[in-house]
Specification:
Length: 355
């Protein structure tokens, strides 16, 4: 494992602008479905807001749990399964050891400094959404307008930033409320620090996001003009901004990961298997599935361990609110190694591999 991944030759030099050249209709289906899904959810909640019929917060939390637990969590396990299946046991052992180390370290950070840990958790969500989507763009949407490494990093920051930063402007009360519950799982006294930090950081983050969005759009146009890949990028990025501005934050995050992130990664997986089929070495299929089951059990153990070590696992709130807060922390804890170990430290492949 190496923390530095070299940019593949097509990044910054390849002129491919989309999947049409390769005729990948099956792979494009999840991309189209993700766009339609977010447009549909946005339209529904825009109409609900206009008519004063926005679902109650309790209903929103149920939607969140269904989306994140029933739909998105299994996909996260599959990403590791797909990445490790043909890698062999020595690599897999190192992978798992690093994963466990990051989980333990992140839980320890929540226990010691919950506000700082929460900031890292939100940054992880930005990295997961943005960097993961960037690799989908490489495979299916096109990135001819992203010519340099800084441009690619900016694209990932803007797309991922929409998830965590846009709701700060449009749904601040709910955003702060659930953030305070998450901090209270470990230290209710730290909520005051959270309030001060969010009040100071909110205008800065919103300003940086606005500048980043404009810079991303402008640099892309400067590099490639009104190309197909640039137009699609602008349309998709704008859709993400509008979606997180209109849809209540609890629902928006709960449905973003299954309806956008997971769907699009499924399309990328099809591209990868078609363009670079898995080797025949590594783990046999029955063993690989056994590893997947063990991984699922280990994930459950992480949740159980977090519940045991957390001083106040339900944050002193009602059952539904407490479960949402606790589950969100659990997702954050496993998301950090998901991104860092599963992708950034895996030089040869990674969970978002594009050949």
């Amino acid at each position: 494992m190496n923390p530095v991944r070299s940019i593949p030759p097509y990044m910054g030099t390849r002129t491919w602008t989309g999947p049409g050249e390769l005729g990948l209709s099956a792979e494009r289906l999840p991309i189209q479905a993700s766009r339609i899904a977010l447009v549909g959810v946005t339209a529904v909640f825009a109409a609900a807001a206009a008519t004063g019929r926005v679902p109650s917060l309790e209903t929103q939390m149920i939607i969140y749990l269904v989306g994140m637990v029933a739909l998105n969590l299994p996909h996260g396990g599959y990403e590791h399964f797909s990445n490790l299946r043909r890698r062999g046991l020595p690599f897999g052992a190192r992978y798992v050891a690093l994963y466990v180390a990051f989980v333990v370290g992140f839980v320890a950070l929540f226990l010691i400094a919950p506000v700082a840990a929460l900031a890292l958790a939100f940054a992880t969500a930005v990295a997961k959404g943005g960097h993961g989507d960037l690799r989908v763009m490489d495979a299916l949407v096109g990135t001819s307008h992203l010519r340099t490494r800084p441009q690619r990093a900016l694209a990932a920051l803007v797309r991922g930033g929409a998830i965590m930063i846009v709701p700060l402007a449009f749904h601040f009360e709910t955003y702060y409320g659930f953030s305070s519950y998450m901090v209270s799982v470990f230290d209710p006294a730290a909520v005051g620090t959270l309030s001060t930090s969010m009040a100071a950081g909110r205008p800065v983050l919103l300003g940086l996001f606005a500048v980043g969005f404009l810079a991303h759009v402008g640099l892309g146009f400067w590099a490639d003009g009104a190309s197909r890949s640039w137009l699609l990028d602008v349309a998709e990025t704008s859709l993400l901004v509008v979606y997180f501005a209109v849809v209540p934050v609890v629902v928006a995050i709960g449905l973003y990961f299954p309806l956008w992130y997971s769907l699009r990664q499924a399309g990328r997986t099809v591209v990868v298997e078609r363009r670079a089929p898995a080797r025949e070495d590594g783990l046999a299929v029955p063993v690989a599935w056994g590893v997947l089951v063990v991984g699922a059990l280990a994930t459950a153990l992480v949740a159980a361990g977090l519940w045991i070590v957390a001083p106040n696992p339900l944050a002193g709130a009602s059952l539904l609110v407490g479960l949402v807060a606790f589950y969100t922390i659990f997702v954050c804890v496993v998301a950090l190694p998901h991104v860092v170990v599963g992708e950034w430290l895996d030089m040869k492949r990674g969970i978002w591999y594009v050949p």
